[in-house]
Amino acid sequence: xxxxxxxxxxxxxxxxxxxxEQHKDMRGSLISVLHKAQGIFGYLPEEVQAYIAEKMDxxxxxxxxxxxxxxxxxxxxxxxxxxxxxxxxxxYVKGSGKLLDKLQEELGIGVGETTEDGLFTIEACRxxxxxxxxxxxxxxxxxxxxxKPEDITKMIxxxxxxxxx
Amino acid sequence: MSxxxxxxxxxxxxxxxxxxxxxxxxxAPNPANLAKHHVLVCAGTGCSSSDSMExxxxxxxxxxxxxxxxxxxxxxxxxxxxxxxxxxxxxYPEGTFYTHVKVSDVPEIVESHxxxxxxxxxxxxxxxxxxxxxxxMSSIPFFQKQKRVALRNCGTINPENIGEAIAxxxxxxxxxxxxxxxxxxxxxxxxxxxxRGRGGAGFPTGKKWKFAAGYQSDEKYxxxxxxxxxxxxxxxxxxxxxxxxxxLEAMAIGGYAIGAHHGFIYVRAEYPIAVGRLEVAIxxxxxxxLLGKDIMGTGFDFDVxxxxxxxxxxxxxxxxxxxxxxxxxxxxxxxxPFPAEKGLWNVPTFVNNVExxxxxxxxxxxxxxxxxxxxxxxxxGTKVFAMAGKVNxxxxxxxxxxxxxxxxxxxxxxxxxxxKAFKAAQTGGPSGGCLPASALDTEIxxxxxxxxxxxxxxGGLIVLDETTCMVDIAKFYLEFTQDESCGKxxxxxxxxxxxxxxxxxxxxxxxxxxxxxxxxxxxxxxSTSALCALGQTAPNPILxxxxxxxxxxxxxxxxxxxxxxxxxxxxQYSIDADKCKGCTLCARNCPVGAISGTVxxxxxxxxxxxxxxxxxxxxxxxxxxxxx
Amino acid sequence: xxxxxxxxxxxxxxxxxxxxxLQAAQKAGINIPTLCYLKDVxxxxxxxxxxxxxxxxxxxxxxxxxxxxxxxxxMTNTAKVREARKGVVExxxxxxxxxxxxxxxxxxxxxxxxxxxxxxxKNRFSGEQSTFPIDERSAAIVRDPNKCVYCRRCEAVCSKxxxxxxxxxxxxxxxxxxxxxxxxxxxxxxxxLCGQCINVCPVGALTEKDDTQKVWDALADDSKHVVVQFxxxxxxxxxxxxxxxxxxxxTGKLVAALRRMGFNKVFxxxxxxxxTIMEEGNELLHRLQNGGTLPMITSCSPGWVKYCENHFxxxxxxxxxxxxxxxxxxxxxxxxxxxxxxxxxxxxxSVSIMPCTAKKFEAARPEMNSSGYQDVDAVITVREIARMxxxxxxxxxxxxxxxxxxxxGVGTGAATIFGTTGxxxxxxxxxxxxxxxxxxxxxxxxxxxxxxxxxxxxATIDLNGTPVKVAVVNTLARAKEIMKQVEAGTADYTFxxxxxxxxxxxxxxxxxxxxxxxxxxxxxxxxxLRAKGLYNDDANLPIRKSHENPFIKAAYENFLGEPLGHKAxxxxxxxxxxxxxxxxxxxx
Lengths: 165, 628, 588
Description:
The complex is a heterotrimer of chains A (165), B (628) and C (588). Chain B is α/β, with parallel strands linked by helices and 628 residues long.
């Protein structure tokens, strides 16, 4: 298995130290710390989890268990643009499944995967709460509503074009 | 805001604050040097998603440029409920209700509305079937049958300004409870109101409080379940975004009732706006002495912390939620012992849902009897529904318990779009069921929904029309529960997988009649043996669709057809030679070149090549292409 | 104790308040089936096999966690209950490899028993099965997550009893499993390889690395001179594999069986346990007299040693440098023994039968080759040797008693109690006291250090006016407590015995598996019974002090020289390796 931590980034680990320090008197703080750690590193590679285990004196298996239990935690580095397709009921009955199919077809990757060029990640989520705009897809947290499959094609093409310039 | 030292001070402050926003009650500002207009812009997630905050910024900028800043206050507010019209903006004192407001509309609003006193007609809502424009909310049918209790302050106040909340009565219930009632009387008042939990099963809230109050412990907790997981329900989020103080107040009342001094709000990390508003509200409440030590000089201490979820539906189950607050894998634990006895960190705890708590202060300001005067015999008060799907008016709807589905879908929801026929209403999310047209006149409350084969759940109401395949919908929900199963108990971990596999088989046209029997056996095993409510109710979408739409299952299995035309494997597209004009549009739009034919001659589809995308049918102008 | 009245299937019983329905039912003569439940270890109500109907409750309730209250009425055998339990077991089976015929746990599998008990002849449910990689990378433990029923008993024993939390729940839903973080190999991480997880696994998801074929191959190889040692605890633990009551000493039968299997020489680890006392006892005296690192801590439990290397790498100086009896035996059997018998050391194949899985790792340590060869060639657990004896068709229970071979086949009573917590301490003090004070301990049985599961025992011995405070610890959770004191410098002990497993080696990860129901129904813990057996063995042996073992004296006189001498140091002492607590892919 290749190392995924991208090298030991001292500055980021210093930030993590600060977070752990802030939470040291908080009961049951593991999930809060992991949220912050993911905010710092963008994801939760093995090294970050082991670091937290050591510093917080929580068994590593417990941390890994928590990371793999909750959908929002990830051990994979994400692409520059994360497309998150809402699969809430309101969006689903309005065809968000087709948007997801289209995305996968256009990008050639599955849900939870990132394109080789590191540009795109596809995710699916349960209700972003913009049911009035169904079906919606968020791109890096910006909501795009009332989408049709052909809009997906255009969105991807636009990003690619912008990236090339 | 300085610390409020007594309940009397709070009462005085309410009058003072209310006067400041008298414009929104249609009155002149008091003192008179305050702004003459208030523009309330929805800052809920729905409207924010369609750039309401950009609209607000543009409006502020333009008003400043026009020198109108002192005269017109632009205020962010919570959800109005009519989300499909977003972004929404309301101008007071006139009450003008502007819809679909874009940044590009702002100059016209400033010029026309504020400078010339002319309404911007094109941004007003047209009342369907009348051709008339609604100038304010009271003339919009969507709002007419609603009764807003839990949502009372959403769209009315700035949720980030505690003064406005106080103006609308925030913390009055708490003040009354702390200064004139014993904890036991507080519990009794909640019991008397008859309020039942709005999060799912409808357990009487007063009973929950009574149990938690009954266990002796130095340490107790109040926990708010804001892990709104039902995909398609967003009332809790809207309350947190629009009226966070109602929750803080209710928590403190609950804390006083059971003897707890600390509360946790467990909120989905997917709700950043709600979290931000809560943080602001907690800070403001602490500053005002409405949270923290010696609240309003009564000697009662209570404080609140926020804990974020991390994406697990099962954490909406109260024991799983508590485990998650403790920082662990959100796996449910068997009950008994109930949280009232051994909850968070094994001490007495009650867990209430957001919408439930939003009602609590009203019970104390208006009285339990007034609260109980609304609703049905077994279900008191109002209920917020998140209405979405194949319905014209999408949004949050709060109605008295006992309102019929027909009233909700047709009177409030404006019926089904595109002249399609109603097929079913899905309530209760993944734990609920579907109600067919024959149930449209059922008066909706906790008990009638269960009797009709569904459940209230948290109040998701998804309208399905004739183009929805009920087997596919059952599969959708099973995919959800299977994906969200925590895995702790075998019935849910393996059973939901087995049910999903069978549904998959059926939608692929590979099902047998034995599969239906197996589904029923599995459903029974899972519902009787699963550890928590997520597992126990996981078969509900299958049981309900089998009950009301069994013929659709049979069509998939026996006729190898999907009547709604959804299950791709079972579709066949064909061209009616009599209707086809040979325009070639279909052939040109077919992504796989499955359509052949010469110009002005009827075309043909090669079914072996067809990928059933439906593009040809969408493009055909002559209705010559059919699916069957 | 407050008692409450409950009605189980119409039968009134009185039980202690706070009991579970499961316990109450046992009192009413009903054994409710269970799977995830394990007395004193795991009560989580997860598996749904023990469901019962409680009058007044809508849903079926898990009897293993449901507390009884006055007047509670329970039905354990209604149609609804039976159907639900059966459905649950069928679901479990639908995601379980149907390879019972090839599974090492066949015949001793709680899932198989349940399927049989529920009368499942045809499974109504089928579908996709889990396809996790099988982890065979460890020298000691094999994990097959595809057989895992997610009962979490291993997770519970690992965290609650051992306090190491190597195994934990991973993922969720259908993909849930139990394993170490990131799926790393157990040998590479801070796992002690104690094997307690195997002892509690109801199925074949956790098993010892099977080395029986290696042993059969050696026995079949005429060029090999195959010798075997068996540890103190083995002589008692083996009995249960052959239907004898827990605590029965079967030394003679085991020797007879091993001889019939074709081992050239049958020796006894008790011999090298006595040797260990000579070295370790003298090391303690040396440390006391020369200002060495104290407290000194025993090093014969390889699970404990690896734990210390991973979790307290800065405290390794406290560990006695004396090798464990297994490894002393290994070094001696390829150096000393060939001299006495005129054999070529290269031809010797040394097999060790242990109650322990970590011993497999210990034997495979690179430094364990002081004989010039790998000192111990194969380590097999009690379970493995039992399987081999069964394969050989040997009627164990009816074998005559036989004696071990000379010169490494005789041990003392002091050696035999090595197999239980406190035994090494007691054995060491019997010798050290006599060496220092010049006379026998006033009472050979040092009751103060004879502990039970998870207990920390303390005693102070007067060595000619010098009070020597000792502690005895079993389970790693308790070891952690003591080690925190050692680390902080607050442990005012001279000598500490630490055993990784509950009750010491008699509770080892390589001993016979005792299923959940048997554990529940036994009046006395099976490990305590095994320990009693060893204490009886000690009492019945003619020599009860290591330094009086004539074969040990002979070994020093004819080969080793003095304890702690040059040769002894070379062959009988070792060093330890500091290891990181957590390794990540970045460390590779």
